Amino acid sequence: MDAVATSEARRAELVSLFDAVSSCTACPLAETRTKVVFGAGNADAELMFVGEAPGFHEDQQGIPFVGAAGKLLERLLGEIGLGREDVFIGNVLKCRPPGNRDPQLGEIEACQDHLFRQIELIQPRIVATLGNFATKLLSGNPAGITRVHGVEQSVRLGNSEVLLFPIYHPAAALYTRAMLGVLEEDFARLPQLLGREPALVPSEPVSPAPDATPVAAELEAQLDLF
Questions:
Q1: Whole-angstrom Cα distance, residue 127 to residue 213?
Q2: Model's pTM, two decimal places?
Q3: Contact at 8 Å (CB) between 32 and 214?
Q4: pLDDT digits 0-9 by tens, 154-179
Q5: Considering only CA atoms, which of 62, 125, 60, 68 is closest in space to residue 90?
Q6: In CATH, what is the architecture of 3-197?
């Protein structure tokens, strides 16, 4: 099977997975969600980001990282010459926990196979985990993000061998300004890991804004979901 056919077959399977996840009732979060947040971006991306779980605005729009943390993620990507269209963004959980509480073990166990299958189908070279929950799940290591951020490791996820690169969740910098420099340093490593020249894009000030701001509705149409 040639590369084009393989890509088309993977995309078809990704659509089937989307349909299955959209009707998932494997955990109680199905009763409280507004929309399933499957993930969005380039289905052939070399770089995939995995966060924790959808928040309020993600639950309303069905798109990951559309609030304040998502705006910062876009800015950090821009500083290394990348955009949402270049990467795939998802979460450990596909449904929002009530009140944005931490994911519970049973919820992670019910949802993790969807994430592993996404990784198999997208076939990223690098999976950047954002925060503790994604890092611990995909590394199989209980060490927290403070100890392992910015340190890449090769892991096998299902049938895929990927380079795992733990990073703090962008939300950390919205509440602790000192974390912004750490995030910028870790993101600056990504072009090297991807085998690209570092981008020289000037940074802009970030505002610590805990209230998420939804993006324009046109964003969904711009994303290469499948």
A1: 26
A2: 0.85
A3: no
A4: 999 877 789 999 999 999 999 888 89
A5: 62
A6: 3-Layer(aba) Sandwich (3.40)
